[in-house]
Amino acid sequence: MSTKWSRILVLVCSTRPNALGPAVASWLTETLAPSAHTLDVDLVPVSLADLHLPFLDEEEHPARGIYHHEHTRRWSKTVAAADGFIVVSPEYNYGMPATLKNALDFLGAEWAWKPMGFVSYGNTSAGTRAVQHAKQVTSTLRLVPLGSTVALRISETLPQGSFQPAAHHARVAVDMLEELVRVAKVLAPLRDHGQAIPGPLPGSYAQRLHPDDGPHVTVLQRCCWVEEAVANNTLQLPALRESPAEVREWLTAWHGTGLWHAGRLLGMVRARRQGNALHIGRLAVAPDLRGRGLGRWLLHIAEGQGSGCSRLMLSTGAASSHNLAFYQRQGYVPLAHAADVSASGKGEVRLGKDLTA
User: Which of 347, 346, 349 is nearest to 328 (CA)?
Assistant: First the structure.
């Protein structure tokens, strides 16, 4: 018995009224249910029609992982939580449906290092040409397409007008699921410690910070908060005074994101939900790299965790004019009770940004 169940999405691709896809997916999940239980697998049907994804409408390239639209954030969260996929797809004009291509194109790192199996259906080729088309795209996204494929010829599976695949189709489907689980487990180490995404500088990448990154974070904080200390005339700043052990502690409690290059931590940000608000803090960029848009990029990464929240919150020193101007350019406004006083007696400005539906 494994300690973690694998979450496998069954993606139903056809959006045509009265399409055969839902019947194929229903047969597939029922056929695989006993094996899924034995293999510790959760099969989760997802209809692309229910996602209501428009044609790709994000301003940023998907590889950057910066999503401005709620429908993209929902799709990102769904895909990121999965360990693998089974695509149920028809063949349209020798290729995969535009709905599948569009759903794939919306995201980047969320797909990486996860296996994908295919159940195709069609007439002459039983949908296999759609599978070959899809494999070109999925491989580019670092998905790992399986060799096992369930190919259904429509004329043979609808003998009496109802969907009735043969027994050998069920056996192939079970074999495919077993292969999918094996590959998902082999690829698991590549998915550990968060999904790395390409960063804004050549060769850089971002991924979640973990407690073991505490020494790197400590060094970056002490480099970056010196200016804050001078501007606000105080050394009583946690980011300057924290020990590596204290940094390790908050790395456990917060979701931190680090921007890395060749083993060097270039920048970071952290976020944590409290009620309906997402609190963002410790936004930092190495002093020699400022002015290249890295802070804005990291802030957008943190804001992307605010799905379902009504407000984004952050704070900075009352005398930190550069920070205040930067946050206000990003849409944050000082709150009515913004002039709080910290334990050190120095002013701190709290800012917020309301999220629209």
Answer: 349
Tell me the C-alpha distance between 264 and 254, whole Å: 21
Which two structure tokens, joined as six digits, stand for 18? 């009265």
pTM beyond 0.70: no
Interval 176-203: pLDDT, tens: 999 999 999 888 767 754 567 888 998 8
73: domain CATH number is 3.40.50.360
Directed axis angle between helix 98-105 and helix 128-140, to 10°?
10
Tokens for 120? 């195709």
* Number of residues that this document lists for the chain: 357
Domain assignment present for 1? no
Q: Answer yes or no: do 113 and 205 share one domain.
A: no
The answer to the question of residue 325 being in a domain is yes
Contact partners, residue 83, CB within 8 Å, separation at least 6: 6, 7, 8, 114, 184, 188, 191
Say how far apart CA 355 and CA 311 lie, in whole Å: 5
Is 51 within 8 Å of 15 (Cβ atoms)?
A: no
